[in-house]
Write a structure and sequence with these properties.
Distance between the termini: 77 Å
Helix content: 10-25%
Order of helices and strands: HEEHEEEEEEEEEEHEEEEEEEEEE
Number of domains: 2
CATH class of the largest domain: Mainly Beta
Radius of gyration: 26 Å
Number of helices: 3
CATH topology of the largest domain: Coagulation Factor XIII, Chain A, domain 1
Structural class: mainly beta
């Protein structure tokens, strides 16, 4: 019963600042760019409608957190602050979609709207975890809770950055507060998860680390590398512009890739849809990266050095892993050299690559165009 009363009181208290703004037209003061308190009238003068609207917009998050989050606390670890909502912006542009999106490899600003219930431990951190069809992403920052005013609503901004080849695609984001405290002389790690919801991590191609000479040894002297590496997961797609000096009439496409984080993939299952686009963005041809034909698995099954694989896909490279087999031999990861043939020569200005499975990821180490009979333009 006590816990129920606390939860009811907590839910009502979350709504109080917003109800005051709507129901009681008295002035209030902004403490700073990152900290705001309601109900502090500095003069008896009534504020204008415009100033009320501006202040309400300033203190209304784009993504409000429900009054009863899906997961509030782990094993009874209750934080001394509640998350009322948040905003996300990147490249100086605030998010406007129904689902927040972030792009890998570039910093983004996460603005939290906190309601403080008590003093936070000095080393509290805000933690963001993104789970999808591939590896989990984790980032965190100092929560900056040292001078929070109990009962006030505070607006704080944090800067996060997701590593390039971590994960891209549809995912679920968990936002929590983490801190340490002492219990019976022992330092305990604490965490309160305050929000869980969908997120889209957008991929960006980065520079490939594969040498052009090695690519030509596999794909032929006419191979034109695009110098692009990326990782795609569930629901992810990316457009890659072909530089003008590399645009050729292509008969086929070479892709160095491997599938990972899959429990099981049937042979001849399509992994990626590849659209060949002209300069207007219209598709002039569509083909697929196919499991067991033009790509294969990387790290679900690790292979002994020199192991012959039950696949027709040519191994492009093998890298030692940190694991060993029963005999102590170092197991390896593989990348594969796949070829995607086109029914005719097409002039390629852009490529759109879309990941199709519900699970796993594809690692693409490089993409090359192979000149057709028409050569370059």
């Amino acid at each position: 019963m006590l816990r129920m009363c606390l939860e009811i009181g907590r839910s009502v208290s979350r709504l109080t600042p917003f109800l005051i703004l709507v129901a009681v037209p008295f002035p209030f003061a902004l403490l700073s760019a990152h900290e705001t308190a309601y109900g502090e009238a500095e003069s008896p003068a009534l504020p204008s409608v415009e100033s009320l609207r501006s202040a309400l917009a300033e203190l209304t998050p784009k993504y409000p957190v429900p009054s009863h989050p899906q997961v509030f606390a782990i094993e009874g670890d209750y934080a001394a602050a509640d998350l009322l909502g948040f905003d996300i912006s990147q490249f100086g542009r605030p998010q406007s979609g129904t689902i927040p999106e972030v792009q890998v490899g570039h910093p983004f600003r996460f603005t939290a709207y906190w309601r403080a219930f008590g003093a936070m431990p000095p080393e509290s951190r805000i933690h963001m975890r993104i789970e999808g069809s591939g590896p989990t992403l984790n980032v965190d920052e100092d929560a900056g809770a040292g001078n929070w005013d109990v009962g006030a609503v505070c607006k704080r901004s944090y800067e996060f950055k997701l590593r390039w080849l971590g994960y891209s695609g549809e995912g679920r984001v968990f936002i929590s507060l983490r801190w340490k405290d002492e219990q019976d002389g022992e330092i305990m790690e604490r965490e309160a998860i305050l929000y869980a919801g969908p997120i889209l991590v957008r991929p960006v191609a980065m520079r490939s680390t594969i040498s052009p000479a090695k690519l030509r040894s596999f794909f032929g002297e006419d191979a034109v590398p695009l110098n692009a590496a990326l990782r795609l997961g569930k629901g992810a797609s990316v457009r890659i512009a072909v530089p003008k000096h590399k645009a050729v009439a292509s008969a086929s496409l070479g892709i160095v890739s491997a599938v990972a984080y899959q429990t099981e993939t049937p042979n001849e299952a399509p992994i990626c849809r590849i659209d060949f686009l002209d300069k207007t963005g219209a598709s002039v041809a569509t083909q697929f990266l196919v499991y067991g034909v033009s790509t294969f698995r990387a790290d679900i099954d690790l292979y002994s050095p020199g192991a012959a694989l039950a696949s027709d896909v040519e191994i492009f490279s093998s890298t030692d892993s940190t694991r060993t087999d029963e005999d102590g031999a170092t197991l390896q990861h593989h990348l594969y050299a796949g070829r995607v043939l086109l029914p005719k020569d097409v002039q390629v200005e852009q490529l759109k690559i879309s990941y199709l499975p519900e699970k796993g990821i594809v690692d693409i180490g490089e993409i090359v165009l192979m000149r057709g009979k028409g050569g370059s333009r």
